């Protein structure tokens, strides 16, 4: 009893945890039900202050060593490592882990593509031949008079080098604007192959190897670039070829997409193949019949997190919420099954699913959770897994116990703005062209472009910074591109619609109204951040805005980031030439040489640089000031 009171005292009121009304409702319900969620665990688990400053090292057993962030140069580790070495090594390992996640994801998709073009796998196919030809051209693969299958085989073999190549420049170096590539060559940061780069980071950050923070950061850049222009870009391009390049599609978001009288199935994770296959299972006539026989009106398939964002952008599949809502959605009691694959899958889901009788399944050999049932997804027999998930969901529907409470919140928005479609939309009918976009930037109607991306997390109020930051940016005529959990935050705020132009400045509003587009464009999942890179390259190639990505009036932000993947993404944007601002927290000790290197010196080297702010309005104006500085340098500031 005393203990419960103690716990209650520490809990943060639901509306201070999140600005998402549906999630707040479920936080309150969970508390009434005595179920603990991520928000409550965050309140009782104070972040370690030394770790938060990245001032500790446990790379060998002479330590772990803790330095004092208030007096960073007052002490060194047992081996003599300085604060700069320790921070750079910690940062590098975050980059390595994040890049590994995207790389492993991309390599899986590419492997599947290989099986398809070799004729070994008949469950998937080449769906978008246009995209196939376009990727072949980028890679300088001959297309004239050749069968799609053969071209595909060459693409497969060439792109495999993204991962396995040991020497030389990686394949998508061919997609990089010439001057940006020159800068990379000058600093020796053109990736060879992702596996080599990640291995080298792990080696160099071992005790007693690389102890020069600048040299470590160089390898961070090379590794992060092998994610952005490598692992992630391959995942995006190959998924487009196999599943179709997104074009705008209406989709519903938030927990109101759950239907009390339907069998509700959520897929949460990152790889599109599981989701594509479960779509086939849930629309199968015998499954729908079985659901009806169990008393349901039908089967309702819904996404969450990144694979959800990808499927929403590609097919208009409804989306139930971002990372901070994955446990909360189970509190509705309406989720009959949740199937997860990899990344951002909280172990806490297991307990919450148990409490509400949701069938939770892991499906990927890389991601088991103790106590959670595993049904392995095999690409050579995908329906075996996805059919079983659906059958389990139907039987849970039949045996639903306990009350069901689905928040009514639901918003409709437009998603699926691929780099190709942006060119098509602005270029006018039948032509794809970035000329009108560049013209509108040069004439000042559009001040610049911002990518706002990344996670939500419990150390800050869910969705708040995303929404306020993006509103401030469009108000100042900055066109916003979005991916991942950030895109879902804005979609839930009802702003991914053309009518949001009334919140935009006059110039941006005019462009949006003429074209009929929203001022905020949703691109998809985290690996689809590569679409921002290819769009930026297109802007450079089109002309009038300088010669490298670093010249563009553009900036990026991840205001509520939490994952190591976000650090890899942030750093590949920085290495590509983009000023990138993070919020909530940053793993660094201020006033150190390492800090100065990331936040200032990288820009002097011709790359981008890092920034940090905890206030969304300040963050917006840091980005706008940078955009204006670039406009000034281009001589296009009015
Ligand atoms: Ni890959 S990495 S919380 S699901 S955006 Fe969402 Fe996105 Fe961050 Fe994870
Ligand atoms: Fe300490 Fe150096 Fe070992 Fe790190 S590598 S734990 S700083 S002795």
From TrEMBL:
Its EC number is 1.2.7.4. It catalyses: CO + 2 oxidized [2Fe-2S]-[ferredoxin] + H2O = 2 reduced [2Fe-2S]-[ferredoxin] + CO2 + 2 H(+). It comes from Desulfatibacillum aliphaticivorans. This is Carbon monoxide dehydrogenase. Its cofactor is [4Fe-4S] cluster. [Ni-4Fe-4S] cluster binds at residues 270, 306, 344, 455, 485, 526. Gene3D superfamilies: 1.20.1270.30, 3.40.50.2030. [4Fe-4S] cluster 2 binds at residues 57, 60, 65, 79. PANTHER family: CARBON MONOXIDE DEHYDROGENASE (PTHR30109:SF4), HYDROXYLAMINE REDUCTASE (PTHR30109). Keywords: 4Fe-4S, Iron, Iron-sulfur, Metal-binding, Nickel, Oxidoreductase. GO terms for molecular function: 4 iron, 4 sulfur cluster binding; anaerobic carbon-monoxide dehydrogenase activity; hydroxylamine reductase activity; nickel cation binding; peroxidase activity. InterPro entries: CO_DH_a-bundle, CODH, HCP/CODH, Prismane-like_a/b-sand, Prismane-like_sf. Pfam families: Prismane (PF03063).
């Amino acid at each position: 009893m005393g203990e419960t009171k103690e716990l209650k005292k520490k809990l943060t009121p639901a509306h201070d945890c999140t600005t998402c009304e549906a999630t707040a409702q479920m936080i309150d319900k969970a508390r009434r039900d005595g179920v603990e969620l991520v928000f409550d665990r965050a309140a009782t688990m104070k972040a370690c202050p030394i770790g938060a400053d990245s001032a500790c090292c446990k790379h060998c057993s002479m330590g772990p060593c803790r330095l004092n962030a208030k007096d960073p140069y007052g002490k060194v580790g047992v081996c003599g490592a300085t604060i700069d070495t320790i921070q750079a090594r910690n940062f590098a390992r975050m980059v390595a882990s994040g890049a590994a996640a995207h790389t492993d994801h991309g390599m899986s998709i590419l492997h599947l593509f290989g099986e398809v073009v070799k004729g070994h796998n008949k469950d998937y196919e080449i769906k978008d031949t246009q995209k196939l030809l376009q990727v072949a051209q980028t890679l300088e693969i001959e297309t004239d008079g050749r069968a799609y299958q053969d071209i595909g085989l060459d693409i497969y073999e060439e792109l495999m080098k993204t991962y396995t190549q040991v020497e030389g420049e990686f394949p998508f170096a061919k997609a990089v604007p010439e001057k940006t590539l020159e800068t990379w060559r000058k600093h020796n940061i053109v990736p060879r192959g992702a596996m080599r780069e990640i291995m080298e980071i792990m080696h160099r950050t071992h005790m007693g190897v690389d102890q020069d923070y600048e040299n470590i950061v160089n390898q961070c850049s090379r590794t992060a670039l092998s994610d952005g222009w490598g692992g992630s870009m391959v995942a995006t391009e190959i998924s487009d070829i196999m599943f179709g390049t997104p074009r705008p599609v209406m989709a519903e978001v938030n927990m109101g997409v759950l239907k009390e009288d339907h069998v509700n199935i959520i897929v949460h994770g990152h790889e599109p193949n599981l989701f594509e296959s479960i779509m086939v299972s849930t629309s199968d006539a015998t499954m729908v019949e079985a659901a009806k026989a169990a008393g349901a009106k039908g089967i309702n398939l819904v996404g969450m997190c990144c694979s959800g964002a990808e499927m929403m952008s590609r097919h208009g599949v409804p989306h139930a919420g971002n990372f901070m809502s994955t446990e909360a959605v189970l509190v509705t009691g309406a989720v009959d099954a949740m199937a997860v694959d990899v990344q951002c899958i909280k172990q806490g889901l297991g307990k919450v699913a148990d409490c509400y009788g949701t069938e939770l399944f892991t499906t990927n050999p890389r991601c088991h959770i103790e106590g959670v049932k595993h049904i392995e997804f095999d690409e050579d027999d995908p329906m075996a897994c996805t059919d079983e998930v659906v059958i389990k969901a139907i039987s849970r529907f039949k045996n639903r116990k306990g009350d069901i409470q689905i928040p009514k919140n639901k918003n409709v928005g437009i998603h699926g703005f691929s780099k190709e479609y942006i060119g098509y939309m602005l270029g006018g009918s039948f032509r794809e062209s970035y000329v009108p976009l560049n013209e509108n930037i040069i004439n000042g109607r559009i001040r610049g472009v911002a990518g706002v991306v990344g996670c939500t997390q419990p150390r800050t109020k869910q969705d708040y910074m995303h929404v306020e930051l993006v509103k401030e940016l469009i108000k100042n005529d900055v066109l916003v591109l979005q991916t991942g959990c950030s895109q879902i935050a804005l979609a839930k705020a009802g702003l991914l619609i053309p009518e949001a132009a009334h919140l935009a400045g006059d110039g941006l509003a005019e462009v949006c109204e003429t074209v009929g587009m929203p001022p905020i464009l949703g691109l998809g999942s985290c690996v689809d951040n590569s679409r921002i890179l290819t769009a930026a390259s297109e802007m450079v190639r089109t002309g009038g805005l300088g010669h490298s990505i670093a010249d563009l009036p553009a900036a990026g932000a991840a205001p509520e980031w939490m994952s190591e993947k976000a650090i890899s993404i942030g750093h590949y944007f920085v290495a590509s030439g983009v000023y990138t601002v993070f919020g909530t927290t940053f793993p660094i000790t201020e006033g150190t040489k390492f800090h100065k290197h990331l936040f200032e010196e990288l820009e002097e080297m011709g790359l981008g640089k890092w920034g940090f702010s905890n206030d969304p309005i300040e963050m917006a104006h840091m980005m706008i000031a940078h955009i204006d500085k670039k406009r000034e340098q281009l001589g296009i500031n009015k």
